[in-house]
Amino acid sequence: MLNLTKTLCNKYDSSRGSFLAWFNTCLRHQYTDEIRAAERHRSHKQSVWQSDDVEFDPLDRVASGIDATLLLKTWESFVQWMKDDPDNFLKTCHIENNPKANCQLIAYLRLVIGKEWQEIARETGSSRGAVTSHWSRKCESLMRQWLEENQRLFGEDNYER
């Protein structure tokens, strides 16, 4: 834990944005690196275990964990949906009398950029209470709806629309 703290403190640059946004970016890059390393390792193991006509991959016999590539692709699709808002659900769902405080902006600032609620409230011109209330009453359900409608991105074979 001490090494982790040292690393975080030494590498974080507050002039480049909030800690959460920086950390999410680092985490995404680390996932990508780990995926590439696992693929290299698997490909090396596969070539070692191949014989004439028979291929044996010990990783095929182990229950697989979560596919980080799939998670990253899902996250990227989710962010793209937030940015594009093709049906204008997010942009039109806003705090009463404040169209700037809409679910599209709030979700992007909170989930992608990693801003704190107070910062979001200042940026949208609403109170912190109004922003968090709107988020929990309206925006979260829109996010869940997208996730339910896009279960196929999670590798689900049996999903209903």
What does this molecule look like?
The protein has 161 residues and is mostly helical. It has one domain. The chain is 64% helix and 4% strand. The protein has 7 helices and 2 strands; from the N terminus they run H-H-H-H-E-E-H-H-H. Strands 1-2 form a two-stranded antiparallel sheet.
Topology overview:
Elements (H helix, E strand, L loop, with lengths): L1 H10 L7 H31 L18 H17 L4 H4 L1 E2 L2 E5 H11 L3 H8 L3 H22 L12
Antiparallel strand pairs: 1-2
Helix pairs in contact: 5-7, 6-7
**Rg measurement, Å:** 21 Å
Domains, number = 1
Reported for the largest beta sheet, the result is:
2 strands, antiparallel
Sketch the topology as an H/E string, one letter per element: HHHHEEHHH
How helical, in percent, are the residues? 55-70%
Report the principal-axis shape.
Answer: flat
Number of helices: 7
As laid out across the biggest beta sheet, the strand order is: 1-2
Beta-strand percentage?
under 5%
Keywords summarizing the entry:
161 residues; two-stranded antiparallel ribbon; mainly alpha
Short description:
This protein has 161 residues and is mainly α.
